[in-house]
Amino acid sequence: xxxxxxxxxxxxxxxxxxxxxxxxxxxxxxxxxxxxxxxxxxxxxxxxxxxxxxxxxxxxxxxxxxxxxxxxxxxxxxxxxxxxxxxxxxxxxxxxxxxxxxxxxxxxxxxxxxxxxxxxxxxxxxxxxxxxxxxxxxxxxxxxxxxxxxxxxxxxxxxxxxxxxxxxxxxxxxxxxxxxxxxxxxxxxxxxxxxxxxxxxxxxxxxxxxxxxxxxxxxxxxxxxxxxxxxxxxxxxxxxxxxxxxxxxxxxxxxxxxxxxxxxxxxxxxxxxxxxxxxx
Length: 280
Known about the structure:
Elements: H1 7-13, H2 21-32, E1 38-42, E2 57-64, E3 69-75, H3 82-96, E4 110-116, E5 127-130, H4 147-153, E6 164-169, H5 180-190, H6 202-208, H7 216-265, H8 270-277
Parallel strand pairs: 3-4, 4-6
Antiparallel strand pairs: 1-2, 2-3, 5-6
């Protein structure tokens, strides 16, 4: 068992407590490059503890002091439609937190943060940030809010009102911490915080996420969680990876038989055709 608790388990069990907000605030501050203060933890269908918790999703819904809503999600296993799930998640939160009697200007800014322990999409970087910018087709200029809108929303550009997305591909990180955000990602990947690290929230994490400081019952629960990760990895290997290998082998065999039939039909002797195809 490693010295510090995995962040995905901590999000689910420990970081919902107001006493531990400083850990989460530190991570969010380093990621978003501004001082983040958590106002409270919100409830949503996505972050309630259910039977699905034993699988691959951990959600935390947070409201900061500016009234913005932050979705923090840790994804352990590969999911083909994960991008679409992000779209659904932000849309659902937006609709959940506007009342029927309110105007559209009351729609809250949503920031979706995904900590991923699998390789999503194609790309060499380990942090991706996405916004919705409206660019002129002819002028190529970015659309700004009007003066009245800027006064109302305290934002300059349209993109600042749309949801934003952060994808952190933990396994892509090369373990070289070049800045304070990298220090956090080093911890996310390795469950270790070096003495030289200075990122906001990491000192609190080092103190509060020590496995040995957990009550015995929680230590046992954490141990079972780690074992479940190994079990799921083994299940994936035996079910999907082996199945894919068998499928490729079967497809190759069928392809060889099809090619053999065509060669024989075209007049090539069977033995010669097999030699050409490497069947003998």
